[in-house]
Write a structure and sequence with these properties.
Length: 235
């Protein structure tokens, strides 16, 4: 039998780690694990029917993505973001998106318009439903498409790195738009700004779009902290 008839142990291990990463990411973003909650390596390994090693490696990868934090001799915990950290995430996002939109505006054509239009239509389709995860993913998919069209692989990689924390930011508050109409309108405005060819208008729309999301997330986080600290909640 050929020596390559079976996958190497490393390949099997690598695939297993990826599966654990996907499972933990989905669980965190679906709020099955609460912010600040400790993840039990032994418990997860038992639940998934695997050894602790791939669970530990997956946790380390998620730490590098900003979804978990490790504490010496205590293990891994779901990351909790405070207002200052949220501000940092959105501050970086605004800088990246300004540059990406400017690059796309300079090369804007019918193909780019059609590609972004189709993604907005997909976003609008899920916006009227109750699947908050789908709304977040389609929203991020629109912005990722802008970064793809910007034509700078390193810029796209920077957005991909940030997107993990961005998902966590949005998930903590559950949503950043109150109605399906507001989701549609906010993204059509971005497309209109690209179509205009006006750099100032494009920058203003990006700042407004990201600023609304930032302010909504921070406001709801502050409201949550206020409710948690209210005397009536400790009776």
């Amino acid at each position: 039998m050929p020596s390559d008839a079976y996958p190497a142990p490393f390949v099997i291990q690598r695939n297993l780690v990826d599966q654990v990463v996907d499972y933990l990411t989905e669980s965190i973003l679906a709020a099955r694990f609460a912010p600040g909650e400790r993840l039990s390596e032994a418990g997860l390994a038992s639940e998934l029917g695997i050894s602790r090693a791939p669970v530990r490696e997956a946790a380390r990868l998620l730490e590098s993505r900003g979804l978990l934090v490790s504490r010496p001799r205590r293990g891994f915990f779901v990351r909790s973001l405070d207002v200052a950290e949220l501000n940092d995430v959105f501050d970086l996002r605004i800088g990246l998106e300004r540059h990406a939109f400017e690059r796309v505006m300079l090369r804007f054509d019918e193909d780019i318009e059609q590609s972004l239009k189709q993604q907005i239509e997909r976003l609008c389709d899920v916006a009227s439903g109750h699947d908050e995860s789908a709304k977040i993913e389609e929203d991020i998919a629109f912005h990722r498409r802008v970064f793809e069209l910007a034509g700078n692989p390193r810029l796209l990689r920077a957005f991909d790195d940030l997107s993990f924390e961005l998902r966590l930011c949005i998930t903590l508050i559950t949503r950043t738009h109150d109605t399906p109409e507001s989701i549609a309108a906010s993204h059509w405005r971005l497309l209109d700004a690209l179509r205009s060819g006006d750099p100032e208008r494009c920058r203003e729309e990006v700042d407004y779009h990201i600023g609304v999301a930032r302010d909504s997330v921070i406001e709801r986080l502050a409201d949550g902290h206020s409710s948690a600290n209210h005397p009536n909640n400790h009776q």
